[in-house]
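Follow-up to my earlier ticket, as requested here are the two runs.
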Amino acid sequence: MSMLKRTAKKKSRLNPKFHIHYKIVVVFMIAVIGVLAVTGGYLITAYENSVLDIYADQQDAYVQLVLDQINLQPERSDEEIVTNILSSLDTSSSKYWTLSKEQTLLFVKDVLETNRYKGFTTPTLYASNSAEQFVKGLALNRVKHEIIDMNEDTYVASGVLFRYNGSQYRICLLTNENIILDNNEFLSSRTEIIIYLIGLLSALLLVTMILSALLDIRNKTIQKLHTKIEKLNVDVEQLEEEVELMDSFHTRWSLFNVNTMDTFVRKLEERKVCPVIFTELSFEGEKGRELFLERAQLLLDKKVLRFSRGQDIILIFAGYYPEEAKSAMKQFEHRSLTIRKTMSCMEETESLWEVYQKFINGTEEERT
């Protein structure tokens, strides 16, 4: 496997294709916290509604008690009902009773408020949609409750429709929801819950931001290390290529394949190297060939190129004259070595390539 491929594999491991930026995580968590906050608000509202519903049930029982008192005392006039029963009940600006006969208002909160609404009908007081629907939905002798809006305030309303002395009456008790929800114990509990939720969501956001920031720092560190490793891999690859190139062209220690001879000859011809001598050697056995190569490492300089052609070896003496080449070959005279053929290019005007082609394709032995 080449260094380039190994570097690519390391890059794929250290630099994943999919990377989430910490800002995206923070924005996502803010959205999640927003949803949780809305859900918390909804749950608190549901909790408040449940408290109001519990209070409304108690209020219904109170209305039923007043209705029973009215029914226990027959043959009373409207004024007597108001004076003896309703006027004695607990009323305030946030909690009051209303009594109407047919569509006429008989009592609202107190004497002063009653005089104010004297001559008005029930729809005049219960003017909002929710209040109107509540009054229309009252059942005979069965107390019911609803949460209604009146005069920009919200009330828990309990009421009942009843008959007395042959006439139809409506009696209602209205309590402002603020009186219920602003109760010290309930308000304290709700405040604690809200503070707890805010603290929890803030802590979640803070932890998310810290972890996201740390993750981003880690990713940046990994990216820097990856870049550094990639640069080192490139440097190592370049060094390996340089070493390989040096080994490839260090003729004293290398034996080239015959297929590379064309390139070397072209380079020599471009550089106008002259003279050049081609010599092909054959050996009786592998041991003789190995012996020659071992001795050639020490006895031949880097101007002598060696190429393997099967079991034979071709030598190119670059810049050698024939006498110098013969002198160099005398160092290898032994029975296992035979000079099959030799050919030289002695003049710069002579084509080195043509001489090389004749040498490489020739069959007859030619000695110079």
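Run two:
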Amino acid sequence: MPADYALRPEAEFLAEQKYLNGRMEDIEKNLGKVAARLGTPTPITQPLDALDRARELVGDMFRQVRVRSLEDAIRTQLAWLDAAERRLAARDGEPKVKFNRIELDRRLLGDILAGWKARQN
């Protein structure tokens, strides 16, 4: 059965997008702070990389809430990460990536969800 990708009524996702906009602003401020601390052009550091990934995930969630709730979008993404982790652990003779971002993505999605739930209470 195909998934339903109909747009949700605007009233249902505006609060989620407002929250995600706030997260994005915080991430962008932190990117600026890290860059200012470094002072000169530099290769991407771990903090910059994590903030950049956070920005990507928040952007993804911002688009997804137009068709499903933030909690459902995060739950779906976490299920996908679980499946990806199982594939990486499989000893099936296929080459595997040595470095992956599954744990980082899982932590960042957990932070987004925790912030959303705290805001609702």
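The only thing I checked on run two: The chain has a mean pLDDT of 88. Let me know what else you need.
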